Amino acid sequence: MMSSTLNGSESLTITASTGESISDPTGDEVSMQVDLGDGMETLTLNVTHNHPFPFGPMAVEVVDSSAQIERYEAWQLDGTSLVLTWGEAAFSIDAQGTLIIADAVVRGADIRCSGTCSIDRSTMEGSAPIIAEAGASLSVRSSLILGSRTDEDVVAVDDATLVYEDSSGTGGWTDAWIRRLSGRTVTTNMPGALVSGSDLGYKGSKSPNAFAEAMGDDVGVDLGSSEMTRIVEWLTGDGVYGKEEGTFTVTSTTGWGTFTTTVPAVWAPTTNVNLELPMIEVVAIEVEERTATVNKSLGVMLTVRNSGLADAASPVLECTVNGEAADTSPSYIQLSTYGGLAANGEMDIPLTWRMASDGAHVLACGVIDLSGTPLAPVEDLVTSDTGVTGAEVSWTYAEEVEETPLMTIIIALVVFLLGVAGIARVAAARSTEEEHEDEEEDDVKSYPEASEDEPSESDVAEDEPAEEAESETDSADEPSEAAPWDEA
């Protein structure tokens, strides 16, 4: 009694241990006559057929010469390498060392190779898929593989070495061989980053997006839930070679900007994709003066460097004094104001600093606290800044500074101007007096010429008293001056 109706193309052969046999029967029953003889207690039937026709014996009925019938259901039969259900192997071979199959016919085997295995000039019926585990070596040369329990005849796992030469497989939808990854995990250095894959696996599909999370000691996502995304290399039943050419992309959006890294998908269970990040640090603080006045601004110059691999669009810096927020302008230094800081770049940023109390103080500046931000888990990757300090500055109140009062300067200037004006007036008066004296000298020194009408000495003598009297009168009216002739 067969599980399905036979049409003669199944290559079915039934051979009894007594020597009788029947080939290519048809119908849903197969009958054959055997001679059990005297004393025979066990009859063995060897049933073989061509894969992949799904049929098998449902029951065996034995009719003796007296027409007595004994029926044995399939589950009651004892057999060796007996396949009752299609898709299950009759026996298994787990080769941890060396397996050599040469010039042989193997039927219904489940073969797993973890060592070194070779199949040469052999026929493997219903014995696929043949699996080469990671690190194993499998060669199939000049052989025929017919019938597989899956969609491939040979499976190479991860980095297994596979040689497939001058051989034929089941064909059709069944691939001759594939390379399948045992997993598909993407790890990264950025918790919470978005991880995605493109052109992955047998069909070049796009993986679902997933956010990186803790995976033991690593951070990443598992993108290998589908077997199709884990098949990276194959040879179809028609002999056409194909391979995966996919990529993995990791993206993280932070307050400093959006960082993205894309790499080729490697043929390994785990792919590491680290984001290229900036490395921001304040490398120098220069103060304008070593002394300053309380509540007055002091110029400061910060030097900031990005020694990382990615541009930083908008990092924020802050300054402190003795651990407290410093009075600076601006209060928070936003690099976006200056166009960001490119990878391997450096810039100088000016600011002013004020203190409300006197004494010696030191200004410290660095990257703002990243706690609670997406960059917090990778703070040691984006900044090595533990706070850079500038030179110590002595701050004093204005009255303690030794300087000349403004009023004193004004008074001194007024006195100076008055003195200059007085000197100018005296010089001008003296110049006018000298000019007047010169004019008088010119008038007096014009001596009269001698003439015939000149009076006699007696006349002169007579006139002198009158002139003297007249002169005395004039002297009373005018200041007394020496006559020009007396000077002569």
Description:
The chain has four domains: 6-76, no CATH class; 91-180; 185-272, no CATH class; 280-400, Immunoglobulin-like. The chain has four helices and 41 strands. The protein is rod-shaped, with a radius of gyration of 59 Å. A seven-stranded mixed sheet has the order 8-11-14-17-19-25-26, with no helix packed on it. Strands 33, 34, 36, 39 and 40 form a five-stranded antiparallel sheet that branches. The chain has 488 residues and is mainly beta. The longest helix has 39 residues, at 406-444.
| CATH fold type of the largest domain | Immunoglobulin-like
Helix content: 10-25%
Give the number of domains: 4
Q: Could you tell me the strand content as a percent range?
A: 35-45%
Determine the CATH superfamily of the largest domain.
Immunoglobulins
What is the CA-atom radius of gyration, in angstroms?
Answer: 59 Å
- CATH architecture descriptor name of the largest domain: Sandwich
Average of pLDDT: 81
Shape: rod-shaped
Short descriptors:
488 residues; mainly beta; 4 domains; seven-stranded mixed beta sheet; five-stranded antiparallel beta sheet; 38% strand; disordered C terminus
Write the layout of secondary structure elements.
Elements: E1 6-7, E2 13-16, E3 21-23, E4 26-27, E5 45-48, E6 59-63, E7 69-73, E8 91-95, E9 98-102, E10 105-107, E11 109-113, E12 116-120, E13 123-128, E14 130-132, E15 137-141, E16 144-148, E17 152-157, E18 161-165, E19 175-180, E20 185-187, E21 194-198, E22 210-211, E23 213-215, E24 218-222, E25 231-235, E26 241-243, E27 247-254, E28 257-264, E29 270-272, E30 280-287, E31 291-293, E32 298-306, E33 316-321, E34 324-325, E35 327-329, E36 332-334, E37 345-354, E38 359-361, E39 364-367, H1 379-382, E40 388-389, E41 393-396, H2 406-444, H3 457-477, H4 484-487
